[in-house]
TrEMBL record:
Residues 8-68 form the HTH iclR-type domain. It comes from Zafaria cholistanensis. PROSITE patterns: HTH_ICLR, ICLR_ED. One of its GO terms (biological process) is negative regulation of DNA-templated transcription. This is IclR family transcriptional regulator. The keyword Acetylation does not apply. SUPFAM superfamilies: GAF domain-like, Winged helix' DNA-binding domain. The keyword DNA-binding applies. Residues 69-244 form the IclR-ED domain. GO terms for molecular function: DNA binding; DNA-binding transcription factor activity. Pfam families: HTH_IclR, IclR_C.
Amino acid sequence: MANSPSGDSVLDRLVRILDAFDAGTPSLTVSALARRADVPRASAYRLVEELLRHGLLAREGGEVRLGLRLWELANRASSTLDLRRVAMPFMEDVNQVVRQNTQLAVLHDDEVLVLERLSRPGSVANQAYVAGRMPVHLTSMGLALLAFSPAPALEGYLERHGERMRSAHPDLRRELAHIRRTGYASLEGFIDTDTTGVSVPVLDRRGHALAVLAVVVPRGSNLLRPAVMALRTAARGISRGLGEIPPD
């Protein structure tokens, strides 16, 4: 129920407060948080105290940041927990073979949501981080997830974001068809000019993407082929571990 002149509910405001933090701003003063979340300062102070009391926020000097209770609650999400648990040994294998950062992601709210990442010393630049979101049209992860989405989901996404997708990928339909034929997506220099992102979908028994497994390698290196092979093997192992046997 709405209980403010603007018509937003207490829950709306709480979500905006929690959503105001990101990798670039992990902590904020309450005044800055109120501005960023578009919540009146008096209301922000009251809601922040409630969130602190429940452990959803934590104090850090004169600022507040997301609390450990959020991490605890998020890790109870059974589908994500199962996926990460099954995927981890396969991600470690890929990390050892390719010797580059390795990540697991899903398509959520029309963005790529990174669930897990294994770092590697000396690896190339990689903008993915756990719980971070990345644009579909600029990542190999996004293209792989989109290419292997059910047809209604793909068409719905393109209806909402077709202009942005086509501006980055003028021959988008052909590109997605190529990804479906080859079983992987690769993008050179879209986020970091010196890198290539490589992604392989984790498929269910219908051939639809449950998630995506990805690495970022130096652009023009000889790592692309072994990366694809390692990712394919790992993605199929994850599917089987989840009880899904994707079609050949």
